[in-house]
User: What shape does this take?
Amino acid sequence: IITWSPLTGHVRTDTLPYAVHSAQAGCVDGQLYVLGGYGTSNEGVASVSTMDLQSNAVSAANPLPVTLYSASYGVFDSDIVLISGYASNRYSDRIFSYDTVTQQTRSWDMRLGFVASNAAWAPGSHWLVAGGSDYQSFPPQRIVLEREDRSISSISVTRPLTYKMKYMSGVFDGEHVLLFGGTQTDDSAADSYIMKYDVETEQCTVSSVYIGTGRVRTAACYDPDTGRTWVSGGQRGNTYHSTSGYFTKDPDTFTTASPMVYAKSGHGMFKIGDYIYVIGGRSGLNSFSTVVERLDPISGNWNTHDSLDVGSTYYYRGNAGYAVSYTHLTLPTKRIV
Assistant: This one.
């Protein structure tokens, strides 16, 4: 577990009881939970570990009922919700909810059946899942989670999006879930659509503007101070992009800004303080980024901010709300894990 502060540059490394990638994670009441993942024996794991964000103590928790990796995930009150992915080493048609108070797991059979999905969360019990699998696309769905006290009482799936799509980036801007790029087939046929899902009317519309070159595995970040939603990087086939720009509404406009310093895809992008940070990603099949880039959202200028020599931090499957790519979370303490 790598914890980094963009404000001080401090890096701390803690060790899980087991080595995994493609895990799911969430922060609840000062505890970081790492759930499942893909282990060193080339198979999924069901283990759950916690880390206290004050003491940095790592301990084991009750495991998941099945092995699970590459799921979309996010925090819903005291539950960590895990959507689809690979359960027991095959496509999962289920939604799991891990109660961090009781450390028990409930599940719902939703017949979704996709991985490589993105999920964006919005207030008011709304989840939006936009996905597909590595081999075939399924209609993305809106998932509604009803709450009772601090737990989930029911889940329903309604209203597909306008297009079947996978490998897009998603973010909530306070009114719409915005979805950028993606592909309906493979990476070389990436699209440049911007889809807007209104969580009040439950309607999805396709914007009249585009992100420029069609790309998959972009990163997106909403800046509430300026009302701009920034989109950066991505790839089309084996071509990686450093492109950046921002989307605004009323009317819909996409403005191309200065490019990032380095081309990359599959990176995380989030705002802390006055700046937006980009971390991780890759610029080639086996070329992983250790450079942290920083964007001034007022001037639109990028610069290299820090270097995290933490190995291969690239990962693109799970992306849910503020739990951004490859198990990196923005914490109230202004750290990134």
Notes: The chain is about 0% helix and 50% strand. Residues 131-140, 311-334 have pLDDT under 50 and may be disordered.
